[in-house]
């Protein structure tokens, strides 16, 4: 029900309002992309609010703004993926060729931010939260993570390793939500993670074309199991080990602080 309502709100904007705007106003490709993403995000929030107020009949608490927790979470995201990136640069698997600056990067950074919001609201705010409510934290964690990993298999340059790495990352972000019970905290970690990969000039979840606008122009070489290949450092064995460690540690802390819902 929740997903249908949110999908309906997004569809009304994407195929109704957006189509009408394109017919009555001349827009550049960048303006069209920006309006589409901003409008879809706004529609997503509207649908989420409607479901919470009229279907679940509850007050939304998971969007409370907590600046300290958000900042810590963002730093945590940078640090975790930074371990992998710094290791690959240190091993000369990644090399910086030039610095382009941020002029081409800003539109991509905006798209990354809106994309992160969309994913977190859908996967952690709706799918995981509602599954957890009915089935408990552990079952919801497995189901949501497998779905998150499976859908990312439609990206470019995916492999069996991608299914493992993205499933683990999806589980990690779900555990951040369990620990914090705040979507902005999860969004901050996810955005900082993605932004760090993009700025470093590495492929972000197989989005190779975005590298043309990254601040750093880079090249990478070495075995795919180490570099992550075309999907990027998220598929690196280094990152997989880092995420497993972070996931187990944070899940332990969340369990110790009684953040798990037991069914």
**Mean pLDDT rating:** 91
Strand order of the largest sheet: 1-2
- Return residue spans where pLDDT drops below 50 for at least 5 consecutive residues: none
Number of domains: 2
User: What is the gyration radius calculated from CA atoms?
Assistant: 19 Å
Molecular structure report:
The two termini are 22 Å apart. It contains 9 helices and 2 strands, in the order H-H-H-E-H-H-H-H-E-H-H. The chain is mainly alpha-helical. Helix 2 packs parallel to helix 4, helix 3 (67-90) packs antiparallel against helix 9 (237-256) and helix 6 (160-180) runs parallel beside helix 9. A two-stranded antiparallel sheet has the order 1-2. The model has no long low-confidence stretch (mean pLDDT 91). It folds into 2 domains: 1-60; 62-256, no CATH class.
Key attributes of the depicted protein:
two-stranded antiparallel ribbon; 9 helices; 4% strand; 2 domains; mainly alpha; globular; 263 residues
């Amino acid at each position: 029900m929740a997903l249908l309502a949110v999908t309906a709100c997004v569809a009304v904007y994407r195929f109704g309002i957006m189509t009408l705007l394109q017919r009555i106003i001349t827009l550049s490709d960048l303006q069209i992309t920006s309006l589409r993403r901003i409008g879809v995000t706004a529609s997503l929030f509207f649908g989420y609010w409607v479901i919470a107020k009229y279907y679940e009949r509850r007050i939304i608490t998971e969007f409370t703004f907590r600046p300290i927790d958000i900042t810590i979470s963002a730093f945590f995201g940078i640090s975790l993926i930074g371990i992998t990136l710094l290791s690959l640069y240190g091993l000369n698997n990644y090399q910086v060729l030039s610095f382009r600056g941020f002029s081409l990067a800003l539109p991509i950074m905006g798209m990354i931010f809106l994309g992160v919001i969309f994913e977190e609201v859908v996967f952690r705010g709706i799918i995981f939260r509602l599954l957890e409510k009915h089935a408990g934290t552990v079952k919801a964690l497995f189901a949501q993570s497998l779905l998150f990993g499976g859908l990312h298999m439609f990206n470019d340059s995916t492999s069996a390793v991608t299914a493992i790495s993205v499933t683990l990352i999806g589980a990690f972000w779900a555990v951040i939500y369990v620990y914090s019970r705040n979507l902005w905290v999860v969004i901050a970690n996810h955005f900082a993670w993605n932004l760090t990969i993009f700025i470093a000039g590495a492929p972000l979840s197989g989005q190779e074309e975005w590298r043309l606008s990254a601040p750093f122009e880079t090249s990478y070489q070495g075995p795919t199991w180490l570099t992550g290949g075309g999907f990027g450092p998220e598929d690196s064995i280094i990152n997989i080990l880092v995420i497993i460690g972070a996931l187990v540690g944070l899940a332990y802390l969340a369990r110790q602080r009684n953040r798990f819902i037991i069914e």
